[in-house]
UniProtKB/TrEMBL annotation:
Gene Ontology cellular component annotations, sorted alphabetically: membrane
Signal peptide: none
The keyword Acetylation is assigned to this record: no
Name used for this protein in its record: Glycosyltransferase
């Protein structure tokens, strides 16, 4: 049976506490993915890390043949890291899927199976691991951050009204390579213009505007598993998101 490729794009900025454990967690699922017709490949995008992330990634590459490392000499932001990772994957002319996730251990790899199953069964182009579906849960996050997240979700939902979407900003998503190639060609290889975390909403809007089908699966965000400090400036992300909403 011919296998489809599953690219896992991991944007990394100072993730020395997490990247090795995350790669190992994914590779524990490799056999099961293979049995389901998927070849697992990693694209680690080091976004100008100032810690030991790149050295750890290069050491892991010596042990695992399914790792590609892409480097930014300086920190360019999540949006540019995503552009770099997607551009590489779609240029390989392979059939299959691309998963983007946070590299801080808060997104567990085994949810990929429910995401792939839903995408195939419903012939979708994008599946979001959603924090706001029945069965979803947010663990380890302060009440303040939870309230801010819920408030932002309401604003995004009322403004954008993308069918079947409740979680506009979660970084854990699965896309078809075909849909990303279409977007990449249309936008000259630069799928998002936003440099910060608001890029996730921007990419979702572009997927929807192209007429691609989107749905969600529930997942549990385990913030307590996060190693190292948060890279997100909450108020900067909120302000950039509001500016983006006004522009869309």
């Amino acid at each position: 049976m011919n296998k489809d490729t599953l690219y896992v794009v991991l944007p990394c900025y100072n993730e020395e506490d997490n990247i090795e454990n995350l790669i190992k967690a994914w590779n524990m699922e490799e056999r099961k993915l293979f049995e389901k017709g998927l070849l697992l490949k990693f694209v680690i995008v080091d976004d100008g890390s100032g810690d030991n992330t790149l050295n750890i990634a290069e050491r892991l590459k010596k042990s695992y043949s399914n790792i590609t490392i892409l480097k930014h000499k300086e920190n360019k932001g999540l949006g540019e890291a995503i552009n770099t990772g997607i551009s590489y994957a779609v240029s390989q002319e392979e059939k299959g899927y691309l998963c983007i996730m946070d590299s801080d251990m808060t997104h567990e790899p085994y949810y990929i199976f429910s995401m792939v199953n839903k995408l195939k069964k419903e012939k979708l182009h994008c599946v979001i691991a959603s924090r706001y579906r029945k069965g979803s849960k947010i663990e380890g996050l302060s009440l303040y951050r939870k309230l801010l997240s819920y408030g932002a979700r309401i604003v995004y939902t009322l403004t954008l009204r993308i069918p079947n979407v409740r979680d506009y900003t979660c970084g854990y998503r699965l896309y078809t390579l075909e849909s990303l190639r279409t977007l990449s060609e249309k936008h000259g290889g630069k799928l998002v213009a936003e440099k910060g975390f608001a890029c996730m909403m921007e990419l979702l809007v572009r997927i929807n505007n192209e007429g691609f089908k989107i749905a969600e699966v529930p997942f549990v965000l385990k913030y307590q598993l996060k190693g190292g400090a948060s890279k997100m400036n909450v108020w900067r992300t909120v302000s950039r998101s509001l500016i983006l909403l006004a522009r869309l």
